[in-house]
Amino acid sequence: xxxxxxxxxxxxxxxxxxxxxxxxxxxxxxxxxxxxxxxxxxxxxxxxxxxxxxxxxxxxxxxxxxxxxxxxxxxxxxxxxxxxxxxxxxxxxxxxxxxxxxxxxxxxxxxxxxxxxxxxxxxxxxxxxxxxxxxxxxx
Length: 139
Hints:
Layout: H1 34-37, H2 50-61, H3 65-79, H4 92-103, H5 108-120, H6 124-137
Helix pairs in contact: 2-3, 2-4, 3-4, 3-6, 4-5, 5-6
Protein name: CbbQ/NirQ/NorQ C-terminal domain-containing protein
Pfam families: CbbQ_C
InterPro entries: CbbQ_C (IPR013615)
């Protein structure tokens, strides 16, 4: 039913609604009510294994396999920092952004800094921790 018009729209038998929802992503004020969540099935997604993520980074960014492999390792190590105060780990998307910068000639450490480190946190201590991890991979 459309409340404003008082009309009812009939859905086709083949109609399917797909909703993407990241619990806790924005704020507790925007969480779905339990009664609403119970109307959907849920699928949990995890980061791809390192070898698959390497392929994705290389294909989507155009960077070398060596850089893509290093970025996948960096992403994995940064995600472990979630247990130490980092709100969200490095997404494959951020790793691809860094790979694109590298493929354009930006140094790996600088690309990681601007595409990953500064994007993930404003906290200077966490930034230093991530940059140390990055430096250990991109010497």
